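Incident log, structure service

09:12 report received: a user says their structure output differs between two submissions of the same chain.
09:20 pulled the input from the user's history:
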Amino acid sequence: MNVYDFDKTIFYSDSTICFLKWCIIRHPHILFLYLPKLFVSAILFAIKKISVSQAVEQLLSFMKYVPNLEDEIEKFWEKYEKKISPWYLKQKKDDDLIISASPEFFLRPIIKKLNVQLIGTQLDLQTGKIVGRCCYGKQKVKNLILSEYFTNLHIDEFYSDSISDFPLSLCAQKAFLVVNHGKNVKEWPEITMKTTEKIQKTKL
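09:34 re-ran on a clean worker, output below:
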């Protein structure tokens, strides 16, 4: 099995940010309801007053202001599925597993079209709260262990754009770093002890 991150790895940019821009253009009122809260949470995250999960919850909170959210998501992916990286489509296999910090329900339409497997962040749409923790960094390993895919799991190759996925890279036979917003693939770099400690200390 090969395992991939999604945003800026097999998708050219950050899909959640793309969707936010899409929704603001189609529903401008979202900007006024959402932007002040996002600005505050960005500051709090920068000074380490809130966790990754709390910051992501705030980022995703715009979705509660989107009319007919499921329809908007379907329309979004009809337009943006073209941003899946060509290098990935050439090597895609049906047993590929995508592990992403993006909400699982949001990625489902494109994952269904790709006909691969998915582990993502679980978001309760009624409360706007993340169920458990954001599927980010070391949490990806924990979510994988708890998933149906863990039985007899052997990861041949792992691909990600972020060094924060170092814990998951250790689970693979070989790992690759994707750069230039999902366009180029190179060997996974050597990770310093300082970087490892920083990743381990990240508050999820």
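09:41 both user submissions now match this output. Likely a transient worker issue. Closing.
09:42 reviewer note: DSSP finds nine helices and eight strands in the chain. The chain has a mean pLDDT of 91.
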